[in-house]
Amino acid sequence: MPEVTARGIRFHVQTMDPPRDAVSDPPVVVFVHGLVVDNLSSFYYTLAGPVSAAGARAVLYDLRGHGLTERTPAGYSAADAVADLFGVLDVLGHRQPVYLVSNSFGGVVALNAALARPERIAGLVMIESYGPAERAGEWTENMLNTLGKSALALEYERLADQLLAIGWRQRGRQARTADALINGTSLLDDLAAVEPVRPADLAAVDCPVLAVYGEHSDIVDAGTLLLRSVPDCTLHIMAGHAHTVLREGTAELLGVMLPWLAHHAGTRVPIVAAAAGGAL
User: Fold this and answer.
1) Which residues are CB-contacts of 88 (< 8 A; sequence separation ≥ 6)?
2) Which of 87, 105, 152, 170 lies 20 to 30 Å from 95, alpha-carbon distance?
3) How is 216-247 classified by DSSP, letter by letter?
């Protein structure tokens, strides 16, 4: 099971190489997942394979405390997540500009990485991503309320034990991991301190951005803000979808993302993806 040590922490990493007939120096596409119950598998089974087949080197890693990466008692701020990202890339030898594909809270990491080290980021794909907002608390308040309720259920209702007792092993293991992360680390306190990326800062993002949001998503306004504020931004709204576009709208998502990567990163466009629809 691939592991690398960066910043003194063991990170679980998976790399998917492009076909042998791809260019000798393929672009690197790094996938950054969401919080708590999420891990690199959400990309491994959806986008990473097609992106690799199109000619990119796909890099997936579990965020600190998630999946199979080491869980530390503290260090879950946006700045820590950005430093972790570049630490993992440095250990892997990827010091050239990379493309970041983020989902949900991964967008906070991606946006802050692009602002902190613009010379290291070639482009961003923001899928239902948090991060951009005009005022503090716009999205963190709802997220913290949800995680706070989850913390109570996990700790006092012993949800993980209940799921395991009725034979739901995978969900039980996920609940146990979530319990340890929410109730056993500084995650909630660190999230409460996260500041949004405001319009003035978005205007400083100098790489191309593809924003994909669900029509019925609670955070679709973040996509509109990206389109309005980022100098080079393409927005695609997925009709009929909410926050789960990665899992439930994979085909349409690929139909938008792969042509965008082909244009900006020089990857190939599969015929099926090219026919799946354009961006708004």
Assistant:
1) 4, 6, 11, 13, 61
2) 105
3) T-TTHHHHHHHHHHSSSEEEEEETT--TTHHH
For 199, other C-beta atoms within 10 Å of its C-beta total 15
Structure tokens that stand for 11 in this block? 């990170």
Tokens 């690199």 -> residue: 40
How far is CA 271 from each of CA 259, 267, 277, rounded to the nearest angstrom? Answer: 10, 13, 11
Residue type, 13: V
DSSP E strands, 131-260: 209-214, 233-238
Residue 22 half-sphere exposure, CB side, CA atoms within 13 Å?
A: 22
Q: Which helix (H) or strand (E) holds 264?
A: helix 250-265
Cross-strand bridge partners of residue 146: none
Q: What is the pTM of this model?
A: 0.88
- Residue 95: closest CA among 111, 119, 114, 113: 119
Distance between alpha carbon 118 and the CA centroid of its chain, in Å? 18
Left, alpha or beta for 126 (phi > 0: left; psi -120 to 50: alpha)? beta
Burial, 79: exposed, middle or buried (Cβ in 10 Å; 0-12, 13-18, 19+)? middle
The pLDDT profile of the chain, 280 residues, written as one tens digit per residue, is 599 999 999 999 999 999 987 667 899 999 999 988 788 999 999 999 999 999 999 999 999 999 899 999 999 999 999 999 999 999 999 999 999 999 999 999 999 999 999 999 999 999 999 999 998 877 776 665 655 444 334 343 343 344 334 344 455 456 667 778 888 899 988 988 889 999 999 999 999 999 999 999 989 999 999 999 999 999 999 999 999 999 999 999 999 999 999 999 988 876 545 444 444 3
Residue tagged 């191309």 (tokens): 208
